[in-house]
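UGSC-like domain-containing protein, Frankia torreyi. Tokens?
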Amino acid sequence: MTGLVQGVRHATVARTVAELAALLGSEGGTLALSAVDERTGAVDLSFRLDDADCGDNCALPPDQLRQVVETRLRSALPGLTAVRIDDSRRPVPAGDGVAGDGRVAPAGPGPSSITVLDPTGGVVPGDADPGPDLGSLRGRRIGVRVDVLWQAWDQTVDEWIAELERAGAIVTTWRRAQGLKGAEGERRQAEYDAFVGGVDAVISGLANCGSCTSWSVKDGLNALNRGLPTVVAATEHFVGLARTLAADNGRPGLRLVELPSSLNTLPEQQVRAHARSSFPALLDAIGAVVR
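Tokens:
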């Protein structure tokens, strides 16, 4: 076959989708392969929240999910022409998309089908620069972005703040209520922008589900793109997703510090002990020194 329609192999699609499902993590919904047209290069997927521990609040938002799926499949499947994601969170009219050759794509599995177009260009590698090292902590203003979801992250941050202040840093925190829209969302975003503008470095977290990983990375990139030393805290199951989101947004070098996925199930005493023991890893990740 020639041109855009080169076809795809079912085994390659299945393997790539399995990798994507593992990347997203079972806590934030289930991505599954529904059908593959090997001749035309069209792929149908489904995304379900039935098994998600915390529902829609923990799932990767539809636009982010689509971006991650599109980027990964484009990279692995050069013969791809269309991807339809049956995502019940976001209904759109069936057959709303256009295939890569300009024709109207066939209707997907139902009214919630999203068609992802296959562009002909490759994936842009982005800026691998992790940003500047922080250097000495003494006198530096450190902003810690927390969230409304993970109590263990608050406990971890408490311990890190004590260590940072002991080293001479000045620490402030800001709490993200993710997913707010409209005027309230704009107000909170302006508040965060002002917060980032008043510090010398940012620690953002916690990336411990699909949605909170998306927001933690987004808020971290806000600081990194301003030239600030920045690190995002992610639990081990979501490190891969955090790296993928950073790369998809043009900054694959975003610094990460890894925490255990069991963090939010541990007793507070163990969480705080782990926070103290992981403090050197935080310093290393953001390029900071105590002197």
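The chain has two domains: 1-87, 135-289.
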